[in-house]
Amino acid sequence: MDTLLEQVRQGYERIGPREAHRAAEAGEALLIDIRYAALRERDGLVPGALVIERNELEWRLDPRGSHRVPEATGHDLRIVVLCDEGYASSLAAESLHRLGLLRATDLTGGFQAWRAAGLPVLHPPVQAPDSQ
């Protein structure tokens, strides 16, 4: 798997947490969080990131697709994919390249690096257990 990741990552330049944050804040990049629900619930959300789980990514971001999200405005869109630690997001970015989204990249170190850099994280409200 390390060899595959190395090959995939040669096809684009990855982005670090602070650069991704600046680009998103400036409206120059769309952050896409592909982590599954349990991780988002456990660790929190990146403010402004669009949540699209990995199994729906290509359907939702293909600008020509009938199931695309409104933010999928064109092939020139700069997309930064983030997963938990920066592995699945590399494969996802490569898949987006195959759709023609050539400005797609991923976040080095994923959500964990984002949080470690002290960048904003929204924590979901704690739900009280059902009482009877």
Write the layout of secondary structure elements.
Blueprint: H1 2-9, H2 17-25, E1 30-33, H3 37-43, E2 50-51, H4 57-61, E3 79-82, H5 88-98, E4 105-106, H6 110-116
Parallel strand pairs: 1-2, 1-3, 3-4
Write structural notes for this entry.
By secondary structure, the chain is an alpha/beta fold. The protein has 6 helices and 4 strands; from the N terminus they run H-H-E-H-E-H-E-H-E-H. Strands 2-1-3-4 form a 4-stranded parallel β-sheet, with helices on both faces. The model has no long low-confidence stretch (mean pLDDT 94).
Count of beta strands: 4
Contiguous low-pLDDT stretches (5 residues minimum) are none
- Radius of gyration, taken over Cα atoms and rounded to an integer in Å: 15 Å
Shape: globular
Neighbour order of strands in the largest sheet: 2-1-3-4
Order of helices and strands: HHEHEHEHEH
Question: Which bin fits the share of residues in helices?
Answer: 25-40%
Task: Round the mean pLDDT to the nearest integer and report it.
Answer: 94
Sheet-strand content, in percent, reads 5-15%
Biggest sheet record:
4 strands, parallel
Terminal residue distance = 49 Å
Distinct helical segment count: 6
Which structural class matches the secondary elements? alpha/beta
